[in-house]
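Hi there, hope your week has been kind to you so far. Do you reckon you could talk me through the fold, stretch by stretch? I've dropped the whole record in just underneath, so have a look:
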Amino acid sequence: MTFEKRLRPTVLKFTGMLSYAAMLMALSASAFSRNLNPGEVETVSAGTIPEAWFIPATATLNIDGAGALNIVASGGALNAVSAITSQIDASANTRVTLDGSTVTGSNFDSALSLTDSTATVTGSTLTSDGRAMSLARDLQIPVGSTATVTGSTLLGGASGAAVTSLSTLNLVGTHAEGTDADGIGLELYGGNANVSAGSRVIGELNGVMFGQDTLLNPADVTAQSVLKVDGSTVQGRTGAAINVDFATPAGQPVLIEISNRSSLIGGNGNILEVIDGAAARFQVDNSTLAGNIDVADGGSAEVFLRNNASLDGNLLNVASVSLETQSTLTGNIQGSGNSVVTLDNNSLLHGAVTGVSAMSISRGAEWHMIGNNSLANLAMQGGSVRFGAPLEYTRLDIANLSGNGRFLMDADVATGATDFLNVTQSATGQHELVVAATASEAVNGTQVRVANIAAGDAQFSLRNGQVDVGALAYKLVREGEGLFLRPDATTPSTGSQTAMAIAGTAPTVIYSEMTTLNTRLGDRRMAGTQPRAQSAGALNSNAQDSSSGLWVRTYGNQYNVKGAYGNGFNQNQTGVSVGLDRALPFWDGQWLIGVFGGYSSTRLDLARGSSGKIDSGYAGLYLTWFDQATGYYVDTVGKINRFKNDVKVTLSDDTRTKGNFDNLGLSGSVEVGKHIPLNRGYFIEPSAQLGVAAVEGKRYHLDNGLQVDSDETRSVLGKVGMTVGRELTLDNGSKLQPRLRAAVSHEFVNNNRVSVNDTDFNNDLSSTSLEFTGGLNWIPANSKWQVYAEVGTSSGSKVDQELGGSVGLSISL
């Protein structure tokens, strides 16, 4: 739309061949009640009869709480405080200041008209049937006008304000509105506007309209209008929020900047409309918008979303779209045929694209497709493409693919339905397919085609090297132009590996808990607290040969486990045991019986962030026999465990699932050895041990539907070892006993079944290990208590103990 079409009867003020100042000077002085002389200063106070005023250059009119009729100023100054006036026409560098005033225009004239002048309006109300305010320039002197309006109201039938070329309007916390059926909140005819601080610009038709300033002399100025909306609202009640309504000069699009949580509201659903021949550069920064951008054929719009900006709406016939810095567009993009889309720096596009020749996705940006899509060129630089909604199964056709990126897909191996990537000409670079994991099983185990690559040297791989499909993993293979998912019967899925890890860990937990007890029994012998009395009456309760003992021991172990299918993991255990034992008053008093209990917590750290936790509570009995004369001993232990198991699985596509179950365990061990004293306090102690354990089988499921059925886990562990130590009596009478131990152990059971979705796996626990342990006991002189500590490590074919240790305290009662 042109300026003249919108000006109505006031067009002569802006289109005459003479300047506006010259036209005013030609008016008869009798047109005004009061004519100030150049340099004169006049103050009108409350109670004065309103008059019409003419203010020439260098003259000043002050209105303080009074009224006035029409005011015309040419080069002077007008200061109105709490005034009520008719329309004000200011030209030739007039300075207008309105504070708490009311100005009313008539006959479609602007309430405040500025030509090559400036105005500061604060807390005031301007109303007119035409425009509440207009900013223009003298055609003979291309200077333009400037106004800053703060905390005020601009109400016009035609518009709240109009700004022509070279002029700038600043709205700060101000309400500007065009109230007619075709009313515009703000008209920009080559002028600029800054709308900030919670301002509201509302038009019954459009909030802001860009029109053509047909009086522009291209040799003097340009017609590139700029609209900046900062923390404010622009609304078109029945039409678009912003309308670019004229054919812009080549290379001079209107510039629109929306920032800092601003709002655009279009009554017809459009936040921006651009007509045929018009061009706009639309930039949104840190704002949340809803509405469409509609560009007519022959028009052009460049759209930029930056700094957490978001737009929920469709883009029609746009030339380019750029999303940056965590911005989001939810809607479809319809390009003009040669349009370009750029997604960068963690931005997100959720929609379909058509008429787009090139797209680039970089630095964590994502495109979530809706429906099938096609592109001529797709450049990936660390971005990703998500194929439709889960189980929607969509297709992306690309002529040329380059760079490096990710494609997130779904595939139903049971039916063969799948998202599909089709490169029709050439693919280069390195790309990753992230295919959604599933708990369902393939019906016949056949391969599924997920992509076709016509030519090029591009390399494709699967995220984490596989796709979890029920119990098994699927691998990516290439045959000719096709990329296929093929089942690998030798590789369990991540869920299956986690289930086997949990099942196989329980015996390790049991034996680690039992080790602390075996050490305790050895402490009793080495410390001289094993009873040696011949009868109950001979037991000395006042010496170290006490008949009873109370002990507590804390322990920790760290293991590296190599699973049966290469599914290695780390295992960390901490716990505490407490026990009470007493000598039996028969059989020569060389028997000791005890009870114990404790708690341990074991954490499993598996591949890709999967984890498990086993909380174990246990209780048991032990019986030991030690022949003081020969040094032979027999230690027996029986124990029951209750396990609380929790598993958290990170699947091949990095999604998470979890499950939990409880079960019981029974175990026992027998150790036979001989304590052989040597000279100078040295001793050796060869031994042999046999341990057995059985852990209850359990059927449970993960919350993604994966079914696990674990048989009873069995273990038979044999061990032979040698301990070398020395008992030292210090000068103060205390005893110190260092020792070293080496042992070889072997797990005999090599068949424990774990079934996942009715697929059986053998959880083979058999392993041979070499163990090394060092310990130290200290008994104060004439004391009934002792402290002891132990640290060790082991290396085995399937289990390595990086470090294990315990610290304990015992008291003879």
Q: What stands out?
A: Residues 7-30, 529-545 have pLDDT under 50 and may be disordered. The helical segments are 3-7, 12-15, 20-26, 494-526.
